[in-house]
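dumping this here before i forget
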Amino acid sequence: MSRSESGFTLIELMVVVAIVAIALALATPSWEQVSQKRRLTNATEQVAALLVIAQSEAQKRNQAVSLAYSRSGNEDWCVGAVVNPDGCDCTVNDSGSDQYCTIDGTSSRIEASEFPSLKLISAADSQPGSGDSRITFDPVRGILQPAGDRLQFVFESGRGHYRLQLVIGPTGLLTICNPDADKAVGGYATCAT
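structure:
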């Protein structure tokens, strides 16, 4: 009487394990790239959303809303907004401070610690001669004050493979674009020069 045994041989299992290992080795770099792009896009869009909220609050309340930013290194940055023409300090963590960035009692600040492996490599306010790291939205039209001001942030993924630029122009128009063709993120246009 012959008895048939079912199951896998050691060689069959080793072949399957080898195929799975090769597939994982090929998928890991692409997963890392997708993950970097997603983190970069997420952070840039959250900062853009904060800018849009600040702009709309100025128009809704008919009061000036200030946006403050700080960059003391690529990986140490923050952005915050307050309904006050004198602004706030996004580096202040104490919610009881009069310099804390808040709108209607809710924190309105974003900081680098919320986005590990993300860099803010450039933050520039074109307000002539100010260098104060603050912009103000006009309460009537939502445009930047003083007239002609422009704010630009350039974010980079942790490993430096991808970059996105966020710009709010003098008219209040906000755009996200690719500043470098070799570090581009799909779905965004190339930045106008």
